[in-house]
Write a structure and sequence with these properties.
The protein is α/β, with parallel strands linked by helices. The chain contains 10 helices and 10 strands. Bound molecules: 5'-O-[(R)-(carboxyoxy)(hydroxy)phosphoryl]adenosine (KG4) and zinc ion. The site of zinc ion has 5 residues, from helix 4. Zinc ion (ZN) binds next to helix 4.
Length: 337
Amino acid sequence: MKEPLILGIESSCDETAAAVIRGRSLLSDEIISSAQLQAKFGGVVPELASRAHTDAVDEVTSRALRSAGVKKEELDAVAVTYGAGLLGALLVGLSFAKGLAYALNIPLIGVNHIRGHLAAAYLEDAALEPPFVTLLASGGHTAILYAKTETQFEILGGTLDDAAGEAFDKIARVLGLPYPGGPHIEALAREGNPVIPMPRMLKGTGGYNFSYSGLKTYIINYVHTAEQRGEAFSRADVACSFQHAALDILIQKTVEAASEKKTDTVTAGGGVIANGYLREKLAEACRRAGLKLVIPVKRRCTDNAAMIAAEGLIQYRAGNFSPFTINAVPSIPLHMN
Ligand code: KG4
Ligand code: ZN
């Protein structure tokens, strides 16, 4: 039997994206980003994001179909992010997907964006099967999960306050770096050393939970005190010390969770997983612990539509199609399809 051909559409934040998959094979993966426009404002302006999606959604979808070499009439389903995200932004992609699915008379599949980040790993390794432990670290969510099946997850722990990406974005602002903060902190950290002692962030306690608020307050105080006293300090050392503290704990707790769950596989997803230091150290830690690591390429850690198509495939196989009355939902739990 031929594998289903699925178009994914993503518009939850500042990337308008479309991708085509055939089963777990990725045929195309297109993104038009308004991040540079948003950077001028130090973060995503919802109204600007919605307008940028309206400009880009038709073009990005045409590109995805063209580079996949498929005609829209060949598609078996349209998968689209319906939440979580910015309401107006979500509505652009969702309305477009509805129109397309309706016109083609094929199923519409509303996808939970967070579940998309988790599904990205399936495109990386066609043989990947649950159970496994997953590290999810994005701008809105940070958690360690146990995936029992493709659709059932146990949340082992998570952040008690900020998401990891949110912490990177806030510390970037303190250091005068542009939005989004993650890649800029990573670049600056390469010029520094992890020499500034940082708070422990529930190391050795709190189960698989962690907290970024103490680390954030500590760094804000460190930088402001130095600035007020007119003392010189190395922004690169601050970035590097923060990056180590923020990410080491995620790696350590993920490997511990895999050992407790007696699984031999670890996956990861979300924007923060694009971080080179994290990728290197997580790979090293998994190697030492004898764990197989499946990690999406950097482009599919940050927001993309291939992951939405991948989660769409899971729902397609489960027969979970959405009614045309489906609405955008700004905040949805991981457990919702
Ligand atoms: O998954 P994502 O693209 O969007 C959400 O669903 O939230 O994640 C965006 C977050 C931002 O906070 C961004 O600063 C962070 O991921 N991020 C990074 C890196 N690239 C993106 N954080 C650390 N290092 C990076 N290289
Ligand atoms: Zn995301």
